[in-house]
UniProtKB/TrEMBL annotation:
Name this protein carries in UniProt: Chain length determinant protein EpsF
InterPro entries: Bact_polysacc_biosynth/exp, Chain_len_reg_EpsF, GNVR, LPS_length_determ_N
Taxonomic lineage: Bacteria, Pseudomonadati, Pseudomonadota, Betaproteobacteria, Burkholderiales
Domain Tyrosine-protein kinase G-rich, first and last residues per copy: 341-420
Keyword Lipid metabolism: no
Residue ranges of every copy of the Polysaccharide chain length determinant N-terminal domain listed in the record: 3-88
Highest taxon above the source species: Bacteria
Recorded topology in the membrane: Multi-pass membrane protein
Naturally occurring in which organism (per UniProt): Ideonella paludis
Name of the coding gene: epsF
């Protein structure tokens, strides 16, 4: 079907289409005029994005869409609607109770029944680019619609406060118990530290480890020095034992040994001279030998006397070295013990610090949750309360008539097409070609009689009924 055929069908069936369109418009107008008027009151609230004075949380310059969707779901929840019914105390209204009895037979809670009815008339619209939420309520009475819209706003704010306060109360009880446990743990850790300090004689400003460490360093330095002195003493003692005592400093600085060496050298020189001049057997030579031997004996005796102190000095230095070593080992053991005590005390102090830190954290959270559980403020503020509407929101006559005209036009066109399919007529040469399957050689204009009426053939062509060739020839 092309557009010309479609137009021809509409021209042929225009009366039927017009009748259907008029019927739809008339029914819509009657429905719109006879329907009871309903009024919609709208209130608006804004979700505050300023930092929370208690928690310090900031929602951001633009709320997350999920947060706004959550707020819309809260407003449309049965909890808020039930709170509205309780706040308005409609369950005490005899008329409302009668309606509830007729609708439910007295089954269930009247507040729940009212809440379900309220939600069917509630309309919540969040703004796309702001934090404003519009809450509208529709009712036959404009004052009742405004009262319900404002009641929903107040119930929403109260519910938001409850959703914030109730968890805070639960957390407050939880943190209160945790704070008691943390305080007990802190007291136990402090008691262990005090017992340890008392048992080991440690005070708060104990500096014994530093003093004992300095003493250990001094003893270590003394031991090194004593080891050097003792080594030198042993070397001098060995030198004296090897007969080289005359090379020791004690012998070299001894004036008696020096004089004896001088006299011995002079006596040996005199003995050598006498021996050369008088011979070995001369009495003077013998006397000189005796004098040399006596001097040498006196020298050896004096050397032994002067070097005997070397051994004593070596023994004393060895004893002092051993004593210093013993003191060093004892001091090292003492320092190690003090370090062990300090390490153990550091562990106990860390336990106390950790317990104190945990206690402070829990107490801080406890104070915060207690403040949250006592607050009655919400981040939801009323932007504009609902007022009594002056004009009804429904029925919308113009909108209904426009929709009826559109739908009626579609139905009229559809009815014309269906009627044409049930009773097919020839509307154009295209229909003849499609029906007879022969080409059209020409089109003769329909003749018009003097009175302005077409001839019989023209009437048949105009009527659109397809005639057989025999009937056409008789005609």
């Amino acid at each position: 079907m092309n557009f010309s055929q479609f137009v021809a069908i509409l021209q042929a069936r225009w009366k039927l289409s017009a009748a259907l369109l008029g019927l739809v418009l008339l029914a819509t107008a009657a429905f719109s005029l006879l329907s009871p008027k309903r009024y919609t009151a709208t209130a608006s609230v804004v979700v505050d994005v300023k930092p929370d004075p208690i928690t310090g949380l900031v929602l951001g310059p633009v709320l997350n869409p999920s947060i706004m969707a959550t707020q819309v779901d809260i407003i449309q929840s049965s909890r808020v609607a039930t709170r509205v019914a309780r706040n308005l105390k409609l369950n005490n209204n005899p008329l409302v109770r009668e309606q509830w009895q007729e609708a439910t037979g007295g089954a269930g809670d009247i507040n729940d029944w009212l809440a379900r009815n309220f939600l069917t008339q509630l309309e919540v619209r969040p703004s796309r680019e702001s934090n404003v939420i519009s809450i509208g309520f529709q009712a036959p009475d404009p004052a009742f619609a405004a009262a319900l819209a404002n009641a929903f706003v107040q119930a929403y704010i109260d519910t938001a406060v409850e959703l914030r306060v109730d968890p805070a109360k639960q957390y407050s009880g939880f943190f209160d118990q945790r704070a008691k446990d943390a305080r007990d743990a802190l007291e136990a850790a402090s008691a262990r530290l005090s017992v340890f300090q008392r048992d080991n004689g440690i005070v708060g400003s104990d500096e014994r480890l530093d003093v004992e460490t300095a003493r250990l360093n001094d003893l270590s330095s003394q031991l090194v020095m004593m080891q050097a002195i003792s080594s030198e003493s042993r070397s001098r003692e060995a030198q004296a034992a090897a007969g080289k005592g005359d090379r020791l400093s004690e012998a070299m600085v001894n004036p008696v040994v020096t004089n004896l060496k001088f006299e011995l050298n002079r006596a040996e020189a005199q003995l050598q001279e006498l021996n050369t001049r008088l011979g070995d057997k001369h009495p003077q030579v013998e006397q000189a030998k005796a004098s040399v031997a006596e001097l040498r004996s006196r020298l050896n005796t004096e050397l032994q006397r002067s070097t005997s102190s070397v051994g004593v000095t070596a023994s004393i230095n060895a004893s002092r070295e051993a004593q210093t070593r013993s003191q060093l080992e004892a001091q090292r053991a003492k320092v190690l013990k003090l370090k062990e005590q300090r390490d153990a005390m550091a562990v106990l102090q860390r336990d106390v610090e950790n317990a104190q830190r945990s206690y402070d954290t829990i107490v801080g959270r406890l104070n915060q949750t207690q403040l949250e559980s006592q607050t009655q403020q919400s981040n939801i503020n009323v932007l504009s309360p609902a007022t009594v509407p002056l004009k009804p929101s429904s029925p919308k006559v113009l909108l209904n008539m426009a929709l009826a005209a559109f739908v009626g036009t579609l139905l009229a066109v559809g009815l014309a097409l269906v009627r044409e399919l049930l009773d097919r007529r020839v509307r154009s040469t295209t229909d003849l070609i499609d029906t007879l399957g022969v080409p059209v050689l020409g089109v003769v204009p329909k003749p018009i009689l003097a009175r302005g009426k077409p001839s019989l053939m023209a009437q048949r062509v105009i009527s659109g009924r397809l005639a057989s060739p025999t009937r056409s020839a008789k005609a």
